[in-house]
Amino acid sequence: DQQVKQNSPSLSVQEGRISILNCDYTNSMFDYFLWYKKYPAEGPTFLISISSIKDKNEDGRFTVFLNKSAKHLSLHIVPSQPGDSAVYFCAASSSGGGADGLTFGKGTHLIIQP
Amino acid sequence: SAVISQKPSRDICQRGTSLTIQCQVDSQVTMMFWYRQQPGQSLTLIATANQGSEATYESGFVIDKFPISRPNLTFSTLTVSNMSPEDSSIYLCSVAGTGGTEAFFGQGTRLTVV
Asked: Are the C-beta atoms of A73 and A90 separated by less than 8 Å?
Protein backbone atom coordinates (compact mmCIF):
# COMPACT_ATOMS: atom_id res chain seq x y z
CA ASP A 1 0.00 0.00 0.00
CA GLN A 2 1.37 3.36 -1.09
CA GLN A 3 2.22 5.50 1.94
CA VAL A 4 3.18 8.47 -0.23
CA LYS A 5 0.90 9.30 -3.12
CA GLN A 6 1.31 11.63 -6.04
CA ASN A 7 -1.99 11.35 -7.81
CA SER A 8 -1.08 13.36 -10.89
CA PRO A 9 1.22 11.39 -13.20
CA SER A 10 1.77 14.48 -15.31
CA LEU A 11 1.20 18.22 -15.24
CA SER A 12 1.54 20.76 -18.04
CA VAL A 13 2.16 24.43 -17.18
CA GLN A 14 2.91 27.44 -19.30
CA GLU A 15 6.32 29.07 -18.90
CA GLY A 16 6.20 31.93 -16.41
CA ARG A 17 3.15 30.60 -14.57
CA ILE A 18 3.03 28.79 -11.25
CA SER A 19 3.48 25.01 -11.09
CA ILE A 20 1.83 23.27 -8.15
CA LEU A 21 2.72 19.64 -7.48
CA ASN A 22 0.77 17.76 -4.85
CA CYS A 23 1.59 14.90 -2.52
CA ASP A 24 -0.46 13.03 0.08
CA TYR A 25 0.74 10.65 2.75
CA THR A 26 -0.92 8.17 5.06
CA ASN A 27 1.72 7.39 7.68
CA SER A 28 1.39 9.65 10.73
CA MET A 29 4.95 8.77 11.77
CA PHE A 30 6.44 10.72 8.87
CA ASP A 31 8.16 13.80 10.26
CA TYR A 32 10.28 15.02 7.37
CA PHE A 33 9.40 15.54 3.75
CA LEU A 34 11.56 16.09 0.70
CA TRP A 35 11.12 16.89 -2.96
CA TYR A 36 13.42 15.55 -5.64
CA LYS A 37 13.74 16.39 -9.29
CA LYS A 38 14.81 13.80 -11.82
CA TYR A 39 15.92 14.20 -15.41
CA PRO A 40 16.09 11.17 -17.74
CA ALA A 41 19.22 9.05 -17.29
CA GLU A 42 20.16 10.91 -14.10
CA GLY A 43 19.65 10.19 -10.44
CA PRO A 44 17.16 12.22 -8.37
CA THR A 45 18.45 15.62 -7.27
CA PHE A 46 17.44 17.04 -3.91
CA LEU A 47 15.32 20.16 -4.27
CA ILE A 48 13.79 21.27 -1.00
CA SER A 49 12.60 19.78 2.27
CA ILE A 50 10.39 20.57 5.23
CA SER A 51 10.20 19.35 8.79
CA SER A 52 6.82 18.47 10.27
CA ILE A 53 7.23 21.27 12.82
CA LYS A 54 6.92 23.81 10.01
CA ASP A 55 4.18 24.54 7.52
CA LYS A 56 6.21 26.34 4.89
CA ASN A 57 9.76 26.39 3.57
CA GLU A 58 10.96 28.60 0.78
CA ASP A 59 14.10 28.49 -1.35
CA GLY A 60 14.21 30.85 -4.29
CA ARG A 61 11.52 29.91 -6.80
CA PHE A 62 10.58 26.81 -4.81
CA THR A 63 8.21 26.73 -1.84
CA VAL A 64 6.94 23.67 -0.05
CA PHE A 65 3.76 23.81 2.02
CA LEU A 66 2.82 21.20 4.60
CA ASN A 67 -0.68 20.63 5.97
CA LYS A 68 -0.26 18.03 8.69
CA SER A 69 -3.93 17.72 9.53
CA ALA A 70 -4.71 16.88 5.91
CA LYS A 71 -1.51 14.83 5.49
CA HIS A 72 -0.83 16.86 2.37
CA LEU A 73 2.10 18.76 1.00
CA SER A 74 2.63 20.74 -2.14
CA LEU A 75 5.55 22.14 -4.08
CA HIS A 76 5.11 25.52 -5.74
CA ILE A 77 7.45 26.64 -8.48
CA VAL A 78 7.11 30.24 -9.55
CA PRO A 79 7.82 31.36 -12.16
CA SER A 80 8.08 28.09 -14.03
CA GLN A 81 10.98 27.80 -16.46
CA PRO A 82 11.69 25.36 -19.32
CA GLY A 83 14.50 23.78 -17.29
CA ASP A 84 11.95 22.79 -14.66
CA SER A 85 10.58 20.14 -17.01
CA ALA A 86 11.39 16.90 -15.18
CA VAL A 87 9.85 14.23 -12.98
CA TYR A 88 9.30 15.40 -9.40
CA PHE A 89 9.25 12.92 -6.55
CA CYS A 90 7.82 13.53 -3.12
CA ALA A 91 9.57 11.58 -0.34
CA ALA A 92 9.01 11.13 3.37
CA SER A 93 10.99 9.99 6.38
CA SER A 94 10.01 8.93 9.90
CA SER A 95 13.44 9.60 11.34
CA GLY A 96 13.87 13.30 10.75
CA GLY A 97 15.52 13.02 7.38
CA GLY A 98 17.26 10.82 4.84
CA ALA A 99 19.51 9.05 7.31
CA ASP A 100 17.27 5.99 7.51
CA GLY A 101 15.97 5.67 3.99
CA LEU A 102 13.03 7.38 2.37
CA THR A 103 9.56 6.45 1.16
CA PHE A 104 8.82 7.86 -2.27
CA GLY A 105 5.75 8.65 -4.33
CA LYS A 106 5.51 7.58 -7.96
CA GLY A 107 6.40 10.99 -9.28
CA THR A 108 4.76 13.71 -11.34
CA HIS A 109 6.08 14.54 -14.78
CA LEU A 110 6.09 18.33 -15.06
CA ILE A 111 6.09 19.74 -18.57
CA ILE A 112 6.72 23.45 -19.01
CA GLN A 113 5.24 24.72 -22.24
CA PRO A 114 6.84 27.73 -23.97
CA SER B 1 26.75 17.35 -1.08
CA ALA B 2 28.30 13.97 -1.84
CA VAL B 3 29.36 12.91 -5.34
CA ILE B 4 28.22 9.37 -6.03
CA SER B 5 29.40 7.30 -9.00
CA GLN B 6 27.63 4.16 -10.09
CA LYS B 7 28.84 1.51 -12.52
CA PRO B 8 27.59 0.34 -14.90
CA SER B 9 25.19 3.06 -16.01
CA ARG B 10 23.18 0.50 -17.96
CA ASP B 11 23.30 -3.16 -18.93
CA ILE B 12 21.30 -5.76 -20.78
CA CYS B 13 21.57 -9.19 -19.18
CA GLN B 14 20.36 -12.68 -19.89
CA ARG B 15 17.88 -14.22 -17.49
CA GLY B 16 19.45 -16.51 -14.92
CA THR B 17 22.68 -14.53 -14.73
CA SER B 18 23.83 -12.06 -12.05
CA LEU B 19 24.95 -8.44 -12.23
CA THR B 20 27.00 -6.55 -9.68
CA ILE B 21 26.50 -2.80 -9.44
CA GLN B 22 29.20 -0.66 -7.88
CA CYS B 23 28.73 2.55 -5.93
CA GLN B 24 31.61 4.87 -5.05
CA VAL B 25 31.24 7.97 -2.87
CA ASP B 26 33.75 10.82 -2.72
CA SER B 27 33.61 11.02 1.08
CA GLN B 28 33.28 8.61 3.98
CA VAL B 29 29.69 7.86 4.92
CA THR B 30 28.25 5.68 7.64
CA MET B 31 25.25 4.34 5.77
CA MET B 32 24.60 3.68 2.11
CA PHE B 33 21.21 2.84 0.69
CA TRP B 34 20.12 0.87 -2.34
CA TYR B 35 16.85 1.63 -4.11
CA ARG B 36 15.00 0.14 -7.03
CA GLN B 37 12.67 1.94 -9.42
CA GLN B 38 10.59 -0.40 -11.51
CA PRO B 39 9.00 1.05 -14.68
CA GLY B 40 6.28 3.54 -13.78
CA GLN B 41 6.76 2.98 -10.07
CA SER B 42 8.23 4.87 -7.14
CA LEU B 43 11.73 4.42 -5.78
CA THR B 44 11.64 1.55 -3.30
CA LEU B 45 14.28 1.02 -0.63
CA ILE B 46 15.94 -2.39 -0.99
CA ALA B 47 18.41 -2.29 1.88
CA THR B 48 20.66 -0.21 4.09
CA ALA B 49 24.36 -1.03 4.09
CA ASN B 50 26.58 -0.24 7.06
CA GLN B 51 30.31 -0.76 6.93
CA GLY B 52 31.40 -3.79 8.92
CA SER B 53 27.98 -5.35 9.37
CA GLU B 54 25.37 -7.17 7.32
CA ALA B 55 22.97 -5.10 5.30
CA THR B 56 19.46 -4.55 6.62
CA TYR B 57 16.82 -5.53 4.05
CA GLU B 58 13.35 -4.08 3.67
CA SER B 59 10.26 -6.23 3.51
CA GLY B 60 10.09 -8.10 0.23
CA PHE B 61 13.84 -8.10 -0.39
CA VAL B 62 16.19 -10.91 0.64
CA ILE B 63 19.95 -11.29 0.85
CA ASP B 64 20.05 -14.32 -1.46
CA LYS B 65 18.53 -12.28 -4.27
CA PHE B 66 20.26 -8.96 -3.56
CA PRO B 67 23.56 -9.59 -1.77
CA ILE B 68 25.30 -6.40 -0.72
CA SER B 69 28.91 -5.73 0.20
CA ARG B 70 30.23 -2.75 2.13
CA PRO B 71 33.99 -3.21 2.45
CA ASN B 72 34.76 0.39 3.48
CA LEU B 73 33.18 3.76 4.16
CA THR B 74 33.22 4.95 0.53
CA PHE B 75 32.18 1.87 -1.47
CA SER B 76 29.35 -0.63 -1.78
CA THR B 77 28.11 -3.18 -4.28
CA LEU B 78 24.66 -4.59 -4.95
CA THR B 79 24.31 -7.86 -6.83
CA VAL B 80 21.09 -8.79 -8.58
CA SER B 81 21.17 -12.58 -8.62
CA ASN B 82 19.51 -15.15 -10.88
CA MET B 83 17.85 -12.39 -12.84
CA SER B 84 14.41 -12.54 -14.43
CA PRO B 85 12.66 -9.95 -16.64
CA GLU B 86 10.84 -8.70 -13.51
CA ASP B 87 14.21 -7.43 -12.24
CA SER B 88 14.36 -4.93 -15.09
CA SER B 89 14.57 -1.65 -13.19
CA ILE B 90 16.73 1.31 -12.39
CA TYR B 91 18.91 0.59 -9.36
CA LEU B 92 20.13 3.58 -7.36
CA CYS B 93 22.71 4.06 -4.67
CA SER B 94 22.14 6.78 -2.07
CA VAL B 95 23.82 8.34 0.94
CA ALA B 96 22.55 10.71 3.59
CA GLY B 97 23.81 14.28 3.67
CA THR B 98 26.09 15.41 6.49
CA GLY B 99 23.14 16.98 8.27
CA GLY B 100 21.29 13.67 8.14
CA THR B 101 18.31 15.28 6.46
CA GLU B 102 18.48 15.12 2.68
CA ALA B 103 19.75 12.10 0.77
CA PHE B 104 21.92 12.17 -2.35
CA PHE B 105 21.73 9.74 -5.24
CA GLY B 106 23.96 8.27 -7.88
CA GLN B 107 22.90 8.45 -11.51
CA GLY B 108 21.43 4.97 -11.38
CA THR B 109 21.97 1.71 -13.24
CA ARG B 110 19.35 0.86 -15.84
CA LEU B 111 19.06 -2.91 -15.98
CA THR B 112 17.19 -4.77 -18.69
CA VAL B 113 16.82 -8.53 -18.36
CA VAL B 114 15.99 -10.45 -21.54
From this structure: yes
